[in-house]
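Q: For a teaching session next week I want to show students how multiple molecules come together into a single three-dimensional assembly. I've collected the sequence lines for a complex. Could you give me the predicted structure tokens for the whole thing so I can convert them for display?
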Amino acid sequence: MSASPSTTVTEPNAAPLPGVLPRAPQVLNDRSPLWVTDAVCSIVEGKTPLWWYAAIALSGSLAAAGGACILYMICTGVGVWGSNSPAFWAWDITNFIFWVSMAHAGSFISAVLFLTRQKWSLSVSRAAEAMTVFAIVCAGVYPAIHIGRVWYVWFLAPIPNNFGMWPNFSSPLLWDVFAVTSYLTVSSLFWFAGMVPDLAVLRDRATTKVRKFCYGIVSLGWLGTARQWRHYEMMYVLLAGLTSVLVVTVTTIVASDCATSVIPGWHATIFPFYFMVGAVYSGSATVLTLLIPLRALYPQLKDLITPAQLEKVGMLLLMMGSCVGYVYVFELFNAWYSGNVFERGAFWERFNGTASWYAITCLSINLTIPQLFWFKRVRTCLPLVFVLAILCNVGMWFERFMIVTTSLLHDFLPSSWGNFHPSVVDILTATGTVGIFFTLFLLFIRFVPIMSMNELKAALPGAQPHHAGEGR
Amino acid sequence: MGSATQSFHGHHLPVAGSIREPLHAIGARFDSPESLIGAADALRSAGLTRFECYTPYPIHGLDRAMRLPKSILSLLVLGGGVSAILIALSMELVPTCLIYPLVVDGKPVDLVALPMFVPIVVALTLMIGAVTAVVGMIALGGMPRWNHPMFAWDLFAKDASRGFFLSVDATDARFSVRGVSELLENAGAGDITAIHLETCAHDGGSQPEGRHGN
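A: Of course. Below is the structure for the complete assembly, covering every listed component.
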């Protein structure tokens, strides 16, 4: 059905219709499928660069320090954290929400944008999915340990036991357990299953026996037969559909942790939306934070991760950041308009009380930084985008703290008002999760194809037959 | 290994694998997805069914040329999802309403408030649906497997990620080396090769019957 030279076209070479802009190329410089394979595989197959060792030493030490703190906390008790009356939820839940939310942009980019046929997301989707999985791992650290006595964590599972004890299914905290477990399972499967054909490429290219064996195991004996692709494509669409639902449900459930309580500052119906837009906002910022250095460190990726694609992630950040800004303003308006003295008091305290600098930092970052992305000059200046994206995530961390902890500091009874100071263990555990995240991501870069080669190759010009029908 | 040739009633083909082992398939390599689709269509029109195409990425129209039906995976996932709903509901309702009735605010237990059970039902449905999708894809795709006779063919083993390959199974009722090779040649194939099974290291390669020739 393609326009052949013989058809009557007024312009030479069948130029696009007037008013229709040509699509930006998926891969720059007319690269061949073989080039794509070589470029992506060379990261895994080449010599480990020195910066990688330095980076993993740093992130590994942070992770180890975090692990030591967790061990110390388990052996001693949650008293080693700064959490105390009235802030029973502090950095633990803040970090949990921060990480689990960040994960959502990965799912959004890989699943929702896949289903809506946004081809530009192809080269960033694998890394975004990896970010999702690792962020959920970091988030998963907290729910298990914040209960204090970790050995009772099995109380959360509906296991028939001789105490006749069952979990309370009406509690959003239990919903959390299922939401996070299913999110981790589904996003890991989505990530892994999408990788199988590319792992098979690494297996076929492996030069050593160990590599061939390892990639042979993880690629499950993939051959790329038409029958396998048929089921694979169906699976990918199904998983993308399921993951898209998760983008909405998981944050909704996490938001319900707060929204179903009566604490002023938590008890709001806008919370699920609030959490979701914040989630995709901070996740897009993380995608930019990870991909911009990656592109600089591996120059062969410059034709695959194009500035145009990063610019689109920037636009996503702008859109979601603006939604976040809208919710901030709406929340303040609602507190005033509700006429509820406790609600008004909580918000007044949030910006004027003892912990006001959290809220002020949060708002001053999240209301301004995303708005800079209106300017093309900002969006296309990658070093600047990198810095701004890190700032966005700092702002989002302060937002999570503002929601979770500052609301607790000022509830109904003046006698129970208080303040929160993090302990060293709090801080090292939090930096430990950052270490875990970057350690996992560095391992991902080194051992796994960081881009979906099969999707990229399929999207190259000339990759698909001109005649979709039968025969030649 | 790749330089050996074998004669099938005067028709010479390069050989992969061990010539003493039975013939597994005739393999061929194509330059473009179009020629692969053409070959698949031609084979199917000639009545051959047991052949397989190998591509580095999914090719639109290839499944139609091979007359492959729609994947049944979506049905499996539907089954997985529906059973997940039932599992989740019984997991929640049985303890909460029967085994250990949870009385909150003195409200009667038999007034089951369903909304509170929904989030876990959704989470489990998505999770079991996704597990079904991946396990189903693996099982329907004939995976996991350690090895495949096609890997006896060096060109394929090294190049499967780049080229478009096709193999016609020797067990096909209409299989004949000459017929298939000519068909593939006419469809524009290159590197047409007779792929034999590899000798097993431990059992000395004794197979009950050989299927050499015609």
